[in-house]
Amino acid sequence: MALCMPEPDAGVLARRGAIVAALRRIVPDGVIDDGDCLAPYECDGLTAYRQRPMVVVLPETTAQVAAVLAWCQANGVKVVPRGAGTSLSGGALPLVDGVLLGMARFNRILEVDYPERVAVVQPGVTNLAITRAVEDAGLYYAPDPSSQIACTIGGNVAENSGGVHCLKYGLTSNNVLGVELVTMEGEVLRLGGKGLEPQGLDLLGVVVGSEGLLGVVTEVTVRLLPKPETAKALLIGFSNVESAGQCVAEVIGAGIIPAGMEMMDREAVHAAEAFVGAGYPLDVEALLIVELDGPEAECVHLVGEVERIARANGAVSVRASRDDAERAVFWAGRKAAFPAAGRISPDYYCMDGTIPRRRLPEVLRRMKELSAQFGLGVINVFHAGDGNLHPLILYDANRDGELEQAEAFGAEILKLCVEVGGVLTGEHGVGVEKRDLMPTMFTPVDLAHQQRVKCAFDPSLLLNPGKVFPQLHRCAELGRMHVHGGQLPHPELPRI
């Protein structure tokens, strides 16, 4: 499927030399414009789509970010922010007539406030590095995407990332207290802070998960949590997926909120076990990994309750971790499931959709039917506790038409998620991958209101265009009138 992106601006491309020179004056040691050196930036984790940016700029200070954005705003140049490039929805796909603004040099932890249990970090700090910096004090940062060793906190903010422990401890939006944000006009804003309840409009809630469409985050204040006194993980095997799904529903129905509750189907279990050697049972059709944490007495009690519910639903095997090292191995297999898929297929397409937990058996059954229909394999790894699915569609890009088949298969899975009462994404974002499916979930009125928010932050529509919205209207078309410096935008348009 040919991806439609905004038509390159010939006038901007003709000014490339002058643009590069101007950016070098702002960031003398951080501009990349050589063709071969631009290659690492031509895509993110959604490698099926790629194109080289016009130029890459790597600022090091908030002042440089503000100056770059203000200059691009004044000169009509598009900007695509980029973190570590681990996005799986094409959120950081560059534009051939745009500046790719890489935030990798913003890689310092600025402050750890132990009494308040918060840390102030730059957006290029990796997710796992926050926990590593505070673990000696018995603290940690809760959101833990599978890519946490590489993904950055700025990217997590952009996509509202979750992870295996988001069931109990929440997504990025539940663990970020404040950000420093630079608008396209170069204005530096502070939203939220160390306090738990900021005053005024919840602009922080708007920015987290906005996929780089509203501004560039240059600083993040995150919540730190005390490490639980005790944590135990259970490996629970089932002879069929339906029983595993019913077990998930009954655990949550019993008022038990595990720290994490993941499910893997037979194919995923075999791939992960061959890759990691986590000790997974290979004679099951579905495997649940359930982690309970808290005070030791509570943890022991909940482990017993979950085992009881699992046995009542026909579990064929139950194994509890003996210590933290074994618990980590249990999770290592789950977190390595994506790379493990690379050992059994030349290529795979990682999806992301969310459904009501009660519809899980039905959705998995229908995905099997779609797999047969499209002639492509699929393995399933997902956050069972909150219904966030991550099907991996297996294909070979070297075979004509298989990529297109994989995309069509993926689109049907996402439509199915919406059909059963779910949503298009849980944590990967919309980006370009799900952009053209947005009308399956939102009405034109819904999308217009979302685009009005975009216009409020970025009236010239220069930040990360071509993402999220299947058709991005000009602000004037949406009825919004932004007056800047006494001048109306788009003077060529008739005013009614």
TrEMBL record:
Query: What InterPro entries does the annotation carry?
Result: FAD-bd_oxidored_4_C (IPR004113), FAD-bd_PCMH (IPR016166), FAD-bd_PCMH-like_sf (IPR036318), FAD-bd_PCMH_sub2 (IPR016169), FAD-linked_Oxase-like_C (IPR016164), FAD-linked_OxidoTrans_Type4 (IPR051914), Oxid_FAD_bind_N (IPR006094), Vanillyl_alc_oxidase_C-sub2 (IPR016171)
Q: Give UniProt keywords alphabetically.
A: FAD, Flavoprotein, Oxidoreductase
The record ties this protein, via Gene3D superfamilies, to:
3.30.465.10, 3.30.70.2740, Vanillyl-alcohol Oxidase, Chain A, domain 4
- Is Flavoprotein included in the keywords of this UniProt record? yes
Q: Which residues belong to any copy of the FAD-binding PCMH-type domain? A: 49-227
Q: Does the keyword Flavoprotein apply?
A: yes
Q: Which Pfam families match?
A: FAD-oxidase_C (PF02913), FAD_binding_4 (PF01565)
What GO annotations for molecular function exist for this entry? FAD binding; oxidoreductase activity
Q: Which cofactor does it need?
A: FAD
Under which name does UniProt file this protein? Answer: FAD-binding protein
**Lineage, top ranks:** Bacteria, Pseudomonadati, Pseudomonadota, Alphaproteobacteria, Sphingomonadales
